[in-house]
Amino acid sequence: MNPNRCSGPISRRSFLTMGTLGITGLSLGDVMRLRAAQGKRNAAPDTSVIFVWLAGGPPHLDMYDMKPDAPEEYRGPFKPIKTNVPGLDVCEHMPLHAKCADKFTVIRSIAHTFNDHGGGSKRVMTGRIPLTPTETVNDSPAVCTIVAKMREKYKLGLPNCVSVVDGGRSNVDTYAQGAAYLGRGYTPFMVDGDPSKPNFQVKNIGVSEEMALRLDDRFTLLRGIEGVRREADTNRALLTMSGHYERAFDMLTSTQARVAFDLSKEPIALRERYGQNAWGQRALMARQLVEAGCSFVTVVMENPNIPGCFYNWDTHAVNHDNFIDMKLRLPLYDKAVTALVEDLHARGLTKKVMLVVTGEFGRSPRISKADGGAKGMRSGREHWPQSMSVLVCGGGMKHGQVIGSTDKLGTHPHDNHLTPNDLWATVYKHLGIDPDTNLYDQQQRPVPILPFGEPIRELT
Q: Which CATH code is given to the segment(s) 41-206+254-448?
């Protein structure tokens, strides 16, 4: 193994499973289910977010911020093409973007200072300066978990927050989606695998009628077990888990969940428009989920599973040739993202739903070189948080514009310098969440949802 190779975002094995309490074999989820059944289900919220995560860091100079007049060692071999929005050019390998650029907005001037995948992921996912520049275990809650906390009153029969990922990448720490001091009850419901495959299944949703009756019998028995209920009331560790178990049990008995995750009823033509691959079908699933009432759906577009492609967007020259990779990867991305953009518009969802597409950082404007052995020299781009491009759509925002710019080489913001926090302030405004609201850490100290940042005025 090449010691200089960048391994990219680190996957950690998931260890959380549905547990039981004592010799009764009754899970804490049973307790929480009884409590939940006593209350009314609230109506679905009228706003939501689809967050597309390009794990590894996409190259802004090869996608949305091309510099055709820069020296060759910066601009690369790809050519820009005009879109239907004057002043907004995109890469030639994203022709579908060019046709619908009036339906989205590109932000070119977001930047931060964390150069490692772990630090960059934590910086973007949480809206906070992480305590450590590496690793992906959060010391602050990810935005998706904060949304889950702020909307926990909504009982929809499906999770408020969902994350759809590659098989084997379902640990919340893989992409810094942990809830930190909020507790695991607020982490996203993880859906791993390829929804385009015939054998794809969403784990832990739906049970037979017979099983449902058997579970209801267990609820009846549980009413007499005061000790279990008392333990759930008094043990703080169990309380932090209760939301996880309640949600897991709710999913098992939810008709809404089965419908929301089922792509089989979608027209074949629409599924083809998204792309009959993991990325396209995850994007389509996200649209179904927000229509069903989910507040926050993360769609991870990491491994395109194309021969000749690297597994994520981390195209250092020591890993892979950036331009070979992008030539193969970008058409899938182009199709999936524009299908989602056009579908949101076609279904009248652009007021309800805000779409955000980003990675943890951009990639270096200056092209690096490495010996690829028998395949010759490879060209790549390094980590680059100093400038990055973000696509946004919906949220009742103005579309068909470019916000901010970078310098002539694409190295740093030239005007309208923004941070990930300004993006999240815009998201929170769309969701009706006050970023000055205090949460409470392990020591019960008040912590504002967002420590700084202002909604991006051009979008609001």
A: 3.40.720.10
Q: What is the pLDDT of residue 205?
A: 72
Closest CA to 358 of 133, 48, 49: 49
- The sign of the torsion formed by the CA atoms of 44, 45, 50, 51 equals negative
Assign residue 16 a region (left: φ > 0; alpha: ψ between -120 and 50; beta: otherwise): beta
From the CB of residue 176, how many other CB atoms can be counted at a distance below 10 Å?
27
Percent of the chain residues past pLDDT 90, beyond the cut: 75
Quote the tokens at residue 62. Answer: 């090869």
* Region 98-114 average pLDDT: 98
Task: Provide the 10 A C-beta neighbour count for residue 311.
Answer: 16
Nearest 5 degrees, angle CA 248-CA 180-CA 395? 75
> Where do the domains of the chain lie?
41-206+254-448
Q: Do residues 429 and 459 touch, judged by C-beta distance below 8 A? A: no
Longest pairwise C-alpha distance within the chain: 76
Cα–Cα distances (Å) from 294 to 137, 277, 297, 381, in that order, read: 24, 23, 7, 36
pLDDT digits (tens, 9 = 90+) for 362-372: 999 999 999 98
Which amino acid is located at 68 in the chain?
P
CA–CA–CA angle 441, 445, 448 (5° rounding): 75
What's the pTM value of the predicted model, to 2 decimals?
Answer: 0.86
